[in-house]
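sorry for the late reply, my laptop died twice this morning and i had to redo everyting from scratch. anyway the thing you sent over, i finally got around to it. pasting the sequence first so we're on the same page, its 258 residues, then the predicted structure underneath. double check i copied it right bc i was rushing
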Amino acid sequence: MKALAQTAPINRVPEVTIDFWLIKLMAVTMGETAADYLAVNLGLGLTVTSVIMTAVLVAVVAIQFAQRRYVPASYWAAVVLISVVGTLITDNLVDNFGVPLEATTIGFSIALAVTFAVWFAFERTLSIHTIYTTRREAFYWLAILFTFALGTAAGDLIAETFDFGYLTTALLFMVVICVIAAAYALAGLNSIVAFWLAYIFTRPLGASLGDLLSQPLEYGGLGFGTTYTSLLFLGLIVAIVIYMTLSQSSSEPTEATR
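ok and here's the structure:
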């Protein structure tokens, strides 16, 4: 039994807990505001911001792939940066290349569906509880990238193009997530399907909340600005990651107790 325990594969992504959903929502909210802060407030522009943040993302993802277990700092740094880059991908397509939000929403939906289909074809599962190999982790992060790009497009489409406003859009996606949770708890919705549906819809929820907090009053926001909004959520994310790291360290068995 001891030999089996030592060779058992270790999952490289976190368990799905309240902490997971809390920090995930904050990460996607910050991704929306941080992208705007870098491109607009700092005056870097979409192109320069995209190049810089993509380079940083590649470095952080390389560090994440080098891990052989879940490490809160590297994992959540990758999530935050993918959130920023996912936002920038959509913004570039819409603002620099003139692609309509309807087209980006449909396009990223198809890209995500294809990613899931290929992932399942190779691995026969989409479970996040069995991310043991580099190939599974690659599919996992690719799916996350597309969920973030899709969420930005869908959130902006409903809030801006369809003129629902940021608050109404956020409430709409909140209701959708509640319906998914109820279907899982009460109607037996498959846990893997429920997870990925909730993961997809928390992105436009977070994007709408980010815009609601940061955009000026005349554009339907609360006017806190991208700087303060980004710093607020960054501080909360860092605090929760520190808590997760300390909790993980205290729960790991020491050599004396193995």
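Residues 13-248 form one domain.
thats about all i looked at so far, will dig more tmrw
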